[in-house]
């Protein structure tokens, strides 16, 4: 069984104790991280190596940043940055091959405040992802495209959908772009395993510690290529990490492939 997880850590150095404790407790085979918020040279490769993982990363000081970890192996880098805009300076995409599996790790722009320039950038980035995703599907290799998509695809993916109507993560254009990826053939693995269930990966921090359970959203997704569909055996979210000390506002989502 190959287990793949995605986790928006919301600052890899600030949340390092949470990340290392989670890696040691779960021992996923492949881990994609987003929102590293660190420059390349300050990425905690040594601590992650001590936990048993090889890593590649694409950092950016204070913002964004993505990484792919492999347990007991070094991921083979295939690409950093999404094609289609040579002027895009944000560190939001990295891709590796691990044991014959192509893994794309992405941190899609949030897009708030919307409408506005940030939302326009989000949609342009999404268009590039859709186009590149089509290339990956045409290439035919077994592929997982996962990360923080900053999209809540349907009303079942929010505890209280109406709270998010004015937010870029729930705008119709964001949801349409995500739906376009599924129409191309990508499979939402968590939703495939849990077709009717409210599954959430993000909650607002609440004042005085803890988190606001009514703010739950699912916007961290693992999309798999059609050839992996028969191999999908399980999926879920490590919700308990959200209650740990100094946690990220996201919890890790994961899938199991035969």
From TrEMBL:
<comment type="similarity">
    <text>Belongs to the DNA repair enzymes AP/ExoA family.</text>
</comment>
<feature type="binding site">
    <location>
        <position position="35"/>
    </location>
    <ligand>
        <name>Mg(2+)</name>
    </ligand>
</feature>
<keyword id="KW-0479">Metal-binding</keyword>
<feature type="binding site">
    <location>
        <position position="150"/>
    </location>
    <ligand>
        <name>Mg(2+)</name>
    </ligand>
</feature>
<feature type="binding site">
    <location>
        <position position="249"/>
    </location>
    <ligand>
        <name>Mg(2+)</name>
    </ligand>
</feature>
<feature type="binding site">
    <location>
        <position position="8"/>
    </location>
    <ligand>
        <name>Mg(2+)</name>
    </ligand>
</feature>
<keyword id="KW-0614">Plasmid</keyword>
<feature type="site" description="Important for catalytic activity">
    <location>
        <position position="220"/>
    </location>
</feature>
<dbReference type="InterPro" id="IPR005135">
    <property type="entry name" value="Endo/exonuclease/phosphatase"/>
</dbReference>
<dbReference type="Pfam" id="PF03372">
    <property type="entry name" value="Exo_endo_phos"/>
</dbReference>
<dbReference type="InterPro" id="IPR037493">
    <property type="entry name" value="ExoIII-like"/>
</dbReference>
<feature type="binding site">
    <location>
        <position position="148"/>
    </location>
    <ligand>
        <name>Mg(2+)</name>
    </ligand>
</feature>
<keyword id="KW-0464">Manganese</keyword>
<feature type="domain" description="Endonuclease/exonuclease/phosphatase">
    <location>
        <begin position="5"/>
        <end position="250"/>
    </location>
</feature>
<keyword id="KW-0378">Hydrolase</keyword>
<feature type="active site" description="Proton donor/acceptor">
    <location>
        <position position="148"/>
    </location>
</feature>
<feature type="site" description="Interaction with DNA substrate">
    <location>
        <position position="250"/>
    </location>
</feature>
<dbReference type="GO" id="GO:0006281">
    <property type="term" value="P:DNA repair"/>
</dbReference>
<feature type="active site" description="Proton acceptor">
    <location>
        <position position="250"/>
    </location>
</feature>
<dbReference type="GO" id="GO:0046872">
    <property type="term" value="F:metal ion binding"/>
</dbReference>
<keyword id="KW-0460">Magnesium</keyword>
<feature type="site" description="Transition state stabilizer">
    <location>
        <position position="150"/>
    </location>
</feature>
<dbReference type="GO" id="GO:0008311">
    <property type="term" value="F:double-stranded DNA 3'-5' DNA exonuclease activity"/>
</dbReference>
<feature type="binding site">
    <location>
        <position position="250"/>
    </location>
    <ligand>
        <name>Mg(2+)</name>
    </ligand>
</feature>
<dbReference type="InterPro" id="IPR004808">
    <property type="entry name" value="AP_endonuc_1"/>
</dbReference>
<dbReference type="InterPro" id="IPR036691">
    <property type="entry name" value="Endo/exonu/phosph_ase_sf"/>
</dbReference>
<protein>
    <submittedName>
        <fullName>Exodeoxyribonuclease III</fullName>
        <ecNumber>3.1.11.2</ecNumber>
    </submittedName>
</protein>
<feature type="active site">
    <location>
        <position position="107"/>
    </location>
</feature>
């Amino acid at each position: 069984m190959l287990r793949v997880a995605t986790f928006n850590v919301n600052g890899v150095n600030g949340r390092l104790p949470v990340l290392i404790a989670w890696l040691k407790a779960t021992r996923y085979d492949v881990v994609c991280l987003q929102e590293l918020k660190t420059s390349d040279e300050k990425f905690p490769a040594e601590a992650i190596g001590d936990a048993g993982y090889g890593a590649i990363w694409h950092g950016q000081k204070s913002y964004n940043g993505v990484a792919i970890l492999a347990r007991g192996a070094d991921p083979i880098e295939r690409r950093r940055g999404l094609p289609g805009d040579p002027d895009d300076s944000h560190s939001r995409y990295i891709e590796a091959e691990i044991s014959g599996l192509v893994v794309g790790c992405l941190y899609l722009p949030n897009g708030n405040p919307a409408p506005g320039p940030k939302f326009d950038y989000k949609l342009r980035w999404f268009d590039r992802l859709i186009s590149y995703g089509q290339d990956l599907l045409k290439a035919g290799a077994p592929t997982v495209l996962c990360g923080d998509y900053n999209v809540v695809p349907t009303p079942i993916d929010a505890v209280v959908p109406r709270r998010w109507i004015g937010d870029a993560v729930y705008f119709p254009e964001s949801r349409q772009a995500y739906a376009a990826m599924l129409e191309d053939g990508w499979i939402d693995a968590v939703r495939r395993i849990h077709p009717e269930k409210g599954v959430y990966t993000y909650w607002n921090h609440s004042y005085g510690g803890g988190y606001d359970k009514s703010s739950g959203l699912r916007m961290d997704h693992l999309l798999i290529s059609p050839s992996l569909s028969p191999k999908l055996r399980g999926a879920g979210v490590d919700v308990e990490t959200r209650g740990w000390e100094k946690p990220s506002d996201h919890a890790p989502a994961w899938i199991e492939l035969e």
